[in-house]
């Protein structure tokens, strides 16, 4: 564990019992805050604490969630919750998958990332399957190194062109099976009830809270 002298000032001011969200993705942090709200938990994000981002060297969503959570718990001395998530497209052998953030490039441009998914699909002809699913792995790590993890999923279809300004990442091209609106069009509260992140959260809440 890191010594207190190494910690940024912001961490030394945290109240006991604080939960750190081990993420630098604003859209994700907004959703996690909303999902934790009903439990009276007011977390602080790794970005707000100026914690560095670890390299995501894992080969699975769970491995990357675990390494992000452990890194933030170790640096902060507080429990940390990480989310590693992504879009898996059947016809692209599961890509972009764990590389979903990296497909947005250094500028994190998800308009370009969605265009890239679409052009890879289009190369396979008009009859290509447009089936896809989102995965969300949550890892909850304590400073002593103990970790629990949960994995959620939501299945759907990709549409083109993208629709809707809500959400983030690939939301504007994803329609959940049985729905007509994209995750970019539906109300954020509706997404919180049905998404891959909601699925993983239900498991976390049942096990931990
Ligand atoms: O690692 P952190 O700091 O949490 O932030 P990140 O954006 O790098 O997050 P990931 O490594 O987990 O990459 C996940 C990417 O998958 C996409 N993604 C994940 N959940 C999504 C959702 O609910 N809706 C749309 N896109 C999502 C989005 O583009 C994310 O950048
Ligand atoms: Mg990441």
Automatic annotation (TrEMBL):
Belongs to the HAM1 NTPase family. Its cofactor is Mg(2+). Pfam families: Ham1p_like. Mg(2+) binds at residues 55, 84. It catalyses: dITP + H2O = dIMP + diphosphate + H(+); XTP + H2O = XMP + diphosphate + H(+); ITP + H2O = IMP + diphosphate + H(+). NCBIfam families: RdgB/HAM1 family non-canonical purine NTP pyrophosphatase. It comes from the Bacteria. The active site is at 84 (proton acceptor). Pyrophosphatase that catalyzes the hydrolysis of nucleoside triphosphates to their monophosphate derivatives, with a high preference for the non-canonical purine nucleotides XTP (xanthosine triphosphate), dITP (deoxyinosine triphosphate) and ITP. Seems to function as a house-cleaning enzyme that removes non-canonical purine nucleotides from the nucleotide pool, thus preventing their incorporation into DNA/RNA and avoiding chromosomal lesions. The gene is rdgB. Substrate binds at residues 23-28, 85, 168-171, 191, 196-197. Its EC number is 3.6.1.66. This is dITP/XTP pyrophosphatase. Keywords: Hydrolase, Magnesium, Metal-binding, Nucleotide metabolism, Nucleotide-binding. One of its GO terms (molecular function) is ITP diphosphatase activity. Binds 1 Mg(2+) ion per subunit. Homodimer.
